[in-house]
Amino acid sequence: MSSDFSDKLLQFEAFFFDGDGVLYKENTILPGAKELLTILEEKKKKIFVLTNNSTKTREEYVEKLRNFGINVNINQILTSAYLTAKYVSETFPRSKIYVIGEQGLKQELERFNLEVLNNWEEKDSEDPFDFELRSVDIVITGMDRKLTYVKLARAMNILKNKQVRFIGTNADVTFPTPFGFIPGGGAMIDILEKLSNRKIDTIIGKPKPLMFNEALKSASVKNNETIMFGDRLETDIVGAKNVGINACFVLGGASSLSDLEKIAKTFYPDIITNSLSDLVHSL
Ligand SMILES: [Mg+2]
What stretches pass through the bilayer (predicted)? Predict the structure, then answer.
């Protein structure tokens, strides 16, 4: 990292952080995360967490971060589950939804007065056809660590009806854990696209502009006053650069240095660091 940039870093007004692979991996906080956020808070910077992870509610993220000793409020958290619920409630109000996803996603949808038709933990002992397949307006897909055969069978048959919309929270195929990678929300989309022989209609999370624009609006800052910290090039970094936000690529998570060649030069990050801890030491 150039010393120029570390001088410049504290000139930004707003700091957007990805969660998984930047601040933490599952229940382990990553080195430097707490220290950097503490410095930024002392300097009255605007801090937002922008995560494609759809498995938790925003309240659960506030709690998760508090357990790491990081104090943020609910308005500083943007998740793909929350934004999917907000988007669907504004665009297709009062829809009936079939969800491939976890409790956090279902709860966010219900908070926006959307009806989750499968609001229980479906077991493979259930009959896939013993379900109101025809009453569904939208299938919403997020990461689902309890994905079952019966859920896939139901979603596949619901999606045969081309009137049903097919919306994904995010397209991340993999998900970093402290022990390696596991399948992410994008993998669920890929399976369903294959099974239903159709393409997803809409994806909400990064790299789409929606989450970045919501955060800019909430922070009341301009894109050039803002920097995004991300570990996944094709979502965090490409998405940020696409809307004119500066980007810091944090190594050790979803993407590696050699992945840079897979993205266009116009989307290259402004700064690359091995960890937030390195950044803290350079300040
Ligand atoms: Mg990440």
Answer: none
DSSP string for 18-80: -SBTTTEETTEEPTTHHHHHHHHHHTT-EEEEEE---SS-HHHHHHHHHHTT----GGGEEEH
How far does residue 272's CA lie from ligand 1's centre (Å)? 15
Q: Domains of the chain (ranges plus CATH)? A: 84-203 (3.40.50.1000)
Give the mean pLDDT of 67-82. 97
- Whether the predicted model's global pTM rises above the 0.70 cut: yes
Q: Give residue 159 CA to ligand 1 midpoint distance, Å.
A: 29
Ligand 1 centroid to residue 19 C-alpha, Å: 6
Question: Strand 46-51 to strand 14-17: parallel, antiparallel, or no bridges (unpaired)?
Answer: parallel
pLDDT top residue among 274 and 6: 274
CA of 40 to the centre of ligand 1 (A): 20
Distances (CA, A) of 100 to 7, 35, 282: 45, 36, 43
Instruction: Judge contact between 137 and 166, C-beta under 8 A.
Output: no
pLDDT tens digits, one per residue of 151-201: 999 999 999 999 999 999 999 999 988 898 999 999 999 999 999 999 999
